[in-house]
Amino acid sequence: MEISICREQPRIEAKVDVKSFLAESSVIVKAKLDAESDVRLREMYESATVMDRSVELPGILQYSRDLYVTYLDEDILIVRDSSGVPELLVRKEKTFSNNWGTDP
Fold it and tell me: Is the distance from CB of 34 to CB of 41 less than 8 angstroms?
C-alpha cells in the first residue's frame, strides 16, 4: 500500500495494486484529513476509484475515524485508531524543505 499525504484536501490518497484472475488493477481511496488537536486527526473517506471508475461516496457511506499520533519525526509516523491498532507510516522520499511554510 502506498499512501500520499498532501497539503490540499483531500489530503490522503491510498493506493493498493490488486491482481485478480482477469487483470491487474489499482484501488485508490481519497480521504480528508483534519487536525482536531495537536495529537488527534480525523480521517474521512470521500471517493474511491476501482477498475478505472471513480465513485464519490455519499455522506451516509463515508467511513471516518479518529487517529491519535503516537510518534512523529521526519521519517516515521505512528498513529493509532480508537481501538488502539497502530499504523506505522515510513516516508518513501522527502520532497519538502526545512522551511515548513513554503513548497519545495
Answer: yes
Give the residues across from 5 on adjacent strands: 12
76 with 69: CB under 8 angstroms?
A: no
- pLDDT above 70 covers a percentage of the chain that reads 89
pTM above 0.90, yes or no: no
Taking only the tens place, the pLDDT of each residue in 17-28 is: 988 888 888 999
CA atoms of 24 and 32, how far apart (whole Å):
27
- For residues 48 and 51, give the distance between their C-alpha atoms in angstroms, rounded to a whole number: 10
Backbone φ and ψ of 83, nearest 5°: -85, -10
How is the chain split into domains, by residue range? 2-67
Residues 81, 65: contact at Cβ < 8 Å?
Answer: yes
